[in-house]
Amino acid sequence: MSELILSCHLGINHQLGYDPPSEPFVFQRVTQAGCPTPAATLSYHIDKVTEIYEGDYTTVYRASLLGQESGAPRDIVLKTDVNARYPRSSMFTQEALRYEKDLRHMQGTYIPNCYGLFQATIYNKLISVLLLEDCGESINFRDRSLSDSDNIQIWKLFTELHVSGFAHRDVDGRNVVKDRDGKFVLVDLEHSRPHKCEVRLRVLIGDFAPRESDFGCEELYDLAIELDFWLPRFLTIYGYQVAVSAFKNGEAKNIVDMLPSDMFGTEEDREEAMREVERVIKCVQEIQAEYADVPDEQRYLRPSDIPKSRFSSEPQAPV
């Protein structure tokens, strides 16, 4: 069985109230049912450790991974529950299972390569260490520097995950990283769950947002909103929110009648409101007409439209 030798103690002794040990900690590789078994028994060493995140449940570091099978170090991200308030071994086991079994076909393309889950009982506490490829820096969905092309790449990460039968369940820019070459990768799979995606509508940037119930998938709907794909479902008229659907085929009089009658002091005020609503109706219908003629093949794919053969790339061999 492969082992991980951890000479940089990550504050383990400090967190658990013990003096610094004289020897490195040794973690054993965890191999779960259905996951590939490493071809050889190897010892791995961690070097150049820098903390990048500390939460209540997980601490994340950047580091270099050194192993006997290769002379060149690998840039990795190390996740551990050493500082967790509560035991987290089950969550680390689940996340490793996603990387090494359920979504192994996505490794190295849509999700990072996984170099293994290692565990050790230290000072009567089970500690987990998950090693993943370092794929870059987290993004912000609202970052104005992200182009439409970038957002489409991000959209595809999640749709590829859905067609593989899983939902991420934590749609946030911090869980998407971007490397120096502009490639995006989806990370942090600890909350992912089996999912049968029922998206019924294709997506087109600039169109009006459909109702969530018509769209069919809450997670992808939320992602489209976060990526600012759609125009809003509601428009503000004289300080009141009116659904876009009312403007698509509605009449100005009916929309004005939705507004409080006491907001119009004179008949001229009401006629001015009618003219404003008619202007908005015209704009909405022009946008409708613009997108009505876009063929389906130019709209972004739903998960059900993605053939399984998309997963043709082979992940890196397990280490």
TrEMBL record:
Gene3D superfamilies: Transferase(Phosphotransferase) domain 1. It comes from the Eukaryota. It comes from Lyophyllum shimeji (Hon-shimeji). Coiled coil: none annotated. This is Protein kinase domain-containing protein. Residues 310-319 have a biased composition (Polar residues). InterPro entries: Kinase-like_dom_sf. Residues 296-308 have a biased composition (Basic and acidic residues). Residues 295-319 are annotated as: Disordered.
